Amino acid sequence: MSLNSMPLNSMPLxxxxxxxxxxPPHWVGDGFLVSPLFADHAFQNGISPFLMLDYAAPRQFKxxxxxxxxxxxxxxxxxxxxxVYDGEVEHRDSAGNSGxxxxxxxxxxxxxxxxLHEEFHSREAAKRGGVVSMAQLWVNLRAGDKSxxxxxxxxxxxxxxxxxxxxxxxxxxxxxxxxxxxxxxxxTRMNVWDIRLTAGGRAELPLFEGDPAILAVFSGAVxxxxxxxxxxxxxxxxxxxxxxxxIEAKEDSQLLLLSGEPIDEPIAAYGxxxxxxxxxIRQAMEEFRAGAMGVx
Length: 296
Hints:
Number of helices: 2
Distance between the termini: 50 Å
Shape: globular
Largest sheet: 9 strands, antiparallel
Oligomer: single chain
Order of helices and strands: EEEEEEEEEEHEEEEEEEEEEEEEEH
Strand content: over 45%
């Protein structure tokens, strides 16, 4: 029997292994005050295929002729996934891609063998001022995919399918929820689900046995598997065993559910580069200095 055909209540729950409180936020450039939600679990195989998750809570910015953000910087060996909740983010990269994403939109960038890019509040949004909030997820690539050509997926809110829940909904950005497939193209199997629940809302989420799972609580509070109460700015880590998790919202809540086929390979990370060995990190730095990652 396949995962999608099994009755949810017959599936074993993925047990909670740890609940992590977010460290204090820090600025990325001058445009994004982010909480590194994975804390010291970032860049560890226990959360594979995911590497890092930054969340910028809603923040009011004054009108400015100079858009706040992050200037030109390199990446190699992984993918970045940017989800905008409020405001607008403008992107430009050395592969010739550019664009503006707004509320509900997603930018999925494959750094692959190397890319330069920049991210700012959009010029028009900066002139108006207003609230900005977003999340950025880093997704690892297998060793054989780290040399892939840079890529860019501009995923619009209207193109992301929704699954109705009891008292809420989940947007399927990537992966498959009972046959509803997300638009993101991924190198390995994974789920990236953007979930909203009103107080009292419930969700039974089917997941694969053997996949790590992570639930980030951006706002609100939820009971997980009927026993663990988890508040805002916390991340729940689940065991690989089991086929589902159960959530009940105690307040209106905004969540991000991540799960996927683990990449059980060595991780070597330094700044904007994620490879398999320190020698590959040194090579990436040399390529960047030599201009091999393009020009922006």
